[in-house]
TrEMBL record, chain A:
Residues 50-478 form the Nitrogenase/oxidoreductase component domain. This is Nitrogenase. GO terms for molecular function: nitrogenase activity. Gene3D superfamilies: Nitrogenase molybdenum iron protein domain (3.40.50.1980), Nitrogenase Molybdenum-iron Protein, subunit B, domain 4 (1.20.89.10). Keywords: Nitrogen fixation. Signal peptide: none annotated. PANTHER family: LIGHT-INDEPENDENT PROTOCHLOROPHYLLIDE REDUCTASE SUBUNIT B. Pfam families: Oxidored_nitro. It comes from the Bacteria.
Automatic annotation (TrEMBL), chain B:
It comes from Desulfotomaculum copahuensis. PROSITE patterns: NITROGENASE_1_1 (PS00699), NITROGENASE_1_2 (PS00090). One of its GO terms (molecular function) is nitrogenase activity. This is Nitrogenase protein alpha chain. The lineage of its organism: Bacteria, Bacillati, Bacillota, Clostridia, Eubacteriales. It catalyses: N2 + 8 reduced [2Fe-2S]-[ferredoxin] + 16 ATP + 16 H2O = H2 + 8 oxidized [2Fe-2S]-[ferredoxin] + 2 NH4(+) + 16 ADP + 16 phosphate + 6 H(+).
């Protein structure tokens, strides 16, 4: 096909005909003995990324905070790139810019000069120093480097100003855990460094949301508001990573919102800490419990009916506030929606992939819709995933035998799905898009990362209202994919 | 005052030598390709990104084995839009949704114990398994990153073993993130290492060379084109129509077997002269293959590239014919955009050479480049910018985020061409942006691509949204859509 004249609209994608050439003459099964991740060394299509990302995510949720990545430039740049792709927002992250000299002599100069350069131009209130595989392998003595940096800052900008800056160190050697662990470590590092006094009970609850999106955090705040409960959300990315376009901006760009430092300092005075997604946040919650007796409520994810019920019941028990009519109405609307849609969802086969807590929360909700899970892939290996999942399946009275992947990779997941006699739906993040398209089933996007569609980070899946949003998407995907048009005039 | 002092750099005067204004005598070259200032909020990436993301990634039929913890591989999985037409099978009778080079992310997933005890065993096992899992792959490249570079795994030894055991063409690209000062080091590393390895391979296995009877007198290699958003779909036919044969593209949508034949061509045509001129130079020295530099963006430069290539082979007449035909195809649409874009001012921030590639193109559309910034350019890139720019253009080497903001604030462009990370920053300032990295909706190269490019520039400037951004009481007319 060749256009004689290129129209003003240019060459639209559908006109740019690319002939796909097969790599091999015909389909051949992948070596069966290597399909399961447990039977091989190599990882193909990982269902997780590395630790520093989680820590940077956390730091961006603190007001006036900038992450400083002690390592080579890629570790910061790639993560910024990822955040930009997911949130469609700027992400200001500084790097120590390790070059060869740092690899040989260590990163002391990079940290000391780097923090100095960052402070004198950006005046951050909080700096989250995030380490990487390189600094950890080189063996940088970060605590003493930071002391040195602070001493130099005191000289340059005066002790008062220099001491006002919170510098929180988060050790995140990438080879020792996934992005969830990075966030988890950050949760502990921030409370350990900043929430150091328990003096006056504040009557508030702490919420550590984990890697939930701005829309989710807004929904949690909505629930708290209706409960009449004041909360401290650590790390509140809802405004920093979903900021309005309202020029003129401040220079340099400073995103709005984030958890104020004084709120973090007050966290030891709270009634309880809710770590909504246990793998990313329970370390902070448990620390506060051990050290100050602040009750830790770890999970379950407040997704779907029972997940949200449980969250509100516990919140009510902790604060003494009853669940108000307004939220019971929201619950009623979700129940109403479930009643209106179960004919479309029941007995449909679903596969769920993503971070373990997301998979747990979503699967529980899927079971409430009558969906039947066939494969459940939690990307970060966890001590609790398999146990928690069997509890959920049992509670739903589900007798099927879905594949449970605790860790593993997406190659194993997809090869398993290919062999299934039937699959109706995948729920998961953008990393599942190829497999969904190839199996010709809809992908309902949720969890981290979603970058190939617009707007998912702005919508909630938590709470009753978030449940309605997710349910709507699931039902409409099924209708759109599987129902002939002339069957949808009456649903 | 040729060198420019930015307000945001008052406390880091080291940055002054990187920033200048072009002058009539065109003689200023800023400090460039030197260490980044820690903590300056640089936009630079790592050497591994240059090797794996830019040059290795587009090769269509190799397993890209990232020897690293999972992150380095995850971040380079299907991100850059270097597309390919070679697809694995998903199911019987159904091809995959993404081409082979973007469908699979293959990594050794280094763990703490591997860091302590070394990762060579793990790498070897991983390679052997991957080769069994992906029998369609025609080669394998092992990429090292910070972790495996620092612990000093001898990946070349592993590569030799793999090739011996399996016969598969196996290469290494050792370019850990903490080497060099930017992505540029990774380009360079890949070029030199690949050249040497191909050279040795051809000695070892001469049957991989192009046979005499396969050669034609019109064989060229297009170097430094990565098939961004299918640029090659518009570029390759142009060369073919003038009568030359493109034996290999380094490395957009290219098969490894053809890359091994690179030394068999008569001429190298070098598009990206930052990331890939090295290999052209080495081939000139090693195989006496001459090269010409070109730009395939814009009408004027693309025509020039075709003319110069044609001249080398004595095919001028056909080149003129092709150019005339192509011009006729785009004339009308181009006229529309010229009228709409006339007088608009743009700022460009890219990796390196696209600033100079695009100055002429913008001029062809009646626009002026008021500011340009490059992440990893070298002195020759700045010389090329100077040769093409009008006097008075602000140029920043290795800009940091703050400088980019000040650049936008000071030069007030109508449009900002920039990569993904910075485009959201521009937008928050109310300045329209166009993704100059992977494009908005490409291809942008060649004649036909120029219309796509112009369309995206136009859409940037004329999007209705910009009229509403100034608040509830001030919806502005089109003429001052951008303040
Ligand atoms: S660990 Fe090194 S190679 Fe990997 S992304 Fe970070 S800087 Fe780049």
């Amino acid at each position: 096909m060749r256009l004689n004249e290129i129209p003003v609209e240019g060459i639209p994608y559908d006109q740019l005909k690319i002939e796909k050439i097969p790599c091999a003459p015909a389909y051949a099964e992948r070596a069966p003995e290597l399909v399961s991740a447990g039977s091989r060394t190599v990882v193909v299509n990982p269902n997780r990324t590395c630790m520093p990302l989680g820590a940077m995510w956390a730091v961006l949720g603190v007001h006036g905070a900038i992450p400083f990545v002690q390592g080579a430039q890629g570790c910061a740049t790639y993560v910024r790139y990822t955040f930009c792709r997911v949130f469609k927002e700027p992400a200001t992250i500084a790097t120590a810019s390790f070059h060869e000299d740092a690899a040989v002599f260590g990163g002391r100069r990079n940290l000391v000069e780097g923090l100095r350069n960052l402070v004198v131009r950006y005046h951050p209130e909080v700096i989250g120093v995030v380490t990487t595989c390189s600094s950890e392998i080189i063996g940088d003595d970060m605590v003493s480097f930071i002391k040195l940096a602070r001493a130099q800052l005191r000289q340059e900008i005066g002790p008062e100003q220099a001491d006002r800056i919170e510098i929180v160190l988060v050790n995140t050697p990438s080879f020792a855990g996934s992005h969830l662990e990075g966030y988890d470590r950050a949760s502990r590092a921030f409370v350990e460094n900043m929430a150091t006094v328990r003096d006056k009970p504040n009557g508030k609850v702490n919420i550590i949301p984990g890697l939930l999106y701005p829309g989710d955090i807004r929904e949690i705040k909505h629930l708290l508001r209706h409960m009449g409960v004041e909360g401290i959300v650590l790390f509140d990315i809802s405004d920093p990573l979903d900021a309005p376009l309202r020029p003129p901006q401040k220079f340099p760009y400073e995103p709005p919102g984030g958890t104020p430092a004084e709120q973090i300092r007050d966290m030891a005075n709270s009634l309880a800490t809710f770590a909504l997604l246990p793998h990313a946040g329970q370390a902070g919650a448990r620390y506060l419990e051990r050290k100050y007796g602040v009750r830790a409520v770890v999970g379950p994810p407040p997704v779907g009916v029972q997940g949200t019920d449980q969250f509100l019941r516990t919140l009510s028990a902790v604060t003494g506030q009853p669940v108000p009519e307004s939220l019971l109405d929201e619950r009623g609307r979700l129940i109403d929606s479930l009643a209106d849609t179960f004919h479309h969802t029941m007995m449909k086969k679903v596969a769920v992939m993503g971070d373990p807590d997301v998979v747990l929360g979503v699967t529980r909700f899927a079971l409430e819709m009558g969906l039947e899970p066939v494969a459940l892939a939690g990307g970060t290996a966890s001590k609790t995933f398999t146990r928690d999942m069997s509890v959920i399946l049992k509670e739903a009275g589900f007798t099927g035998d879905p594949l449970l992947l605790n860790g593993g990779d997406l190659f194993e997941f997809e090869e398993y799905l290919k062999k299934l006699p039937r699959l109706d739906l995948i729920i998961g993040n953008s990393k599942a898009v190829d497999i969904a398209k190839e199996l010709q089933v809809p992908l309902v996007r949720t969890g981290f990362p979603v970058y190939d569609r617009f707007g998912y980070q702005k919508r909630a899946v938590v709470g009753y209202r978030g449940g309605e949003i997710l349910l709507t998407e699931i039902v409409n995907s099924i209708l759109g994919y599987q129902y002939p048009d002339d069957r949808t005039h009456q649903l | 005052m040729p060198m420019v002092k930015m307000k945001c750099d008052e406390s880091i005067p080291e940055r002054d030598k990187h920033i200048y204004q072009t002058e009539a005598d065109k003689s200023i070259i800023p400090s460039c390709n030197i260490a980044t200032l820690p903590g300056d909020m640089t936009e630079r990436g790592c050497a591994f990104a240059g090797a794996r993301g830019v040059i290795g990634g587009p090769i269509s039929d190799i397993i890209a084995m990232v020897h690293a913890p999972v992150g380095c591989a995850w971040y380079t999985w299907g991100t850059r839009r270097h597309l390919s037409d070679l697809y694995p099978w998903a199911l019987p009778g159904r091809l995959a949704n993404a081409a082979f080079n973007r469908r699979y992310c293959v990594v050794t997933d280094m763990q703490e114990k591997d860091v302590v005890f070394g990762g060579m065993k793990k790498l070897e096992k991983s390679c052997l398994e991957a080769i069994r899992l992906f029998p369609e792959a025609k080669g394998l490249i092992i990429f090292t990153t910070c972790t495996t570079g620092l612990i000093g795994d001898d990946v070349q030894a592993v590569a030799r073993q793999i090739e011996q055991k399996t016969g598969l063409l196996t290469f290494t690209a050792e370019s850990p993130g903490c080497s060099g000062v930017s992505q540029s080091k990774g380009h360079h590393d890949f070029n030199t290492q690949f050249y040497r390895q191909v050279h040795a391979l051809r000695e070892r296995r001469p049957e991989l060379k192009m046979r005499g009877e396969e050669k034609t007198p019109y064989d060229v290699c297009l170097i430094g084109d990565y098939n961004m958003d299918w640029d090659l779909k518009v570029v390759k036919p142009l060369f073919e129509k003038i009568g030359v044969r493109i034996v290999a593209v380094f490395s957009g949508n290219e098969r490894i077997e053809n890359l091994v034949k690179m030394p068999d061509v008569r001429l190298n045509v070098v598009h990206c002269q930052r990331s890939a001129e090295y290999i052209a130079e080495m081939e000139q020295d090693g195989y006496a293959i001459p090269f010409i530099r070109c730009s395939l963006y814009g009408i004027h430069q693309t025509s020039k590239a075709l003319r110069e290539t044609a001249a080398f082979f004595g095919l001028q007449e056909r080149a003129e014919q092709v150019i005339a035909e192509e011009l006729a195809r785009v004339e009308k649409s181009l006229a529309f955009y010229r009228e709409k874009l006339q007088g608009k001012r743009v700022a460009i921030y890219v990796g390196g050479p696209r600033v100079w590639h695009w100055i002429k193109l913008m001029e062809e559309l009646g626009m002026t480049v008021v500011a340009g910034a490059c992440t990893f350019a070298h002195a020759d890139d700045y010389a090329k910018i100077n040769a093409r720019a009008q006097a008075g253009m602000l140029v920043i080497d290795a800009p940091n985020e703050f400088e980019i903001e000040e650049m936008l604030l000071e030069t007030k462009p109508d449009l900002f061409l920039t990569g993904l990370k910075e485009k959201y920053l521009g937008r928050k300032m109310g300045i329209p942006t166009v993704n100059s990295h992977s494009y908005e909706k490409g291809p942008y190269a060649g004649f036909a691509g120029m219309i796509n490019f112009a369309r995206d520039l136009y859409q940037g400037i004329y999007a209705p949204v910009w009229r509403f951004q100034w608040g509830i009481n001030t919806v502005r007319g089109e003429e001052n859509a951008v303040e």
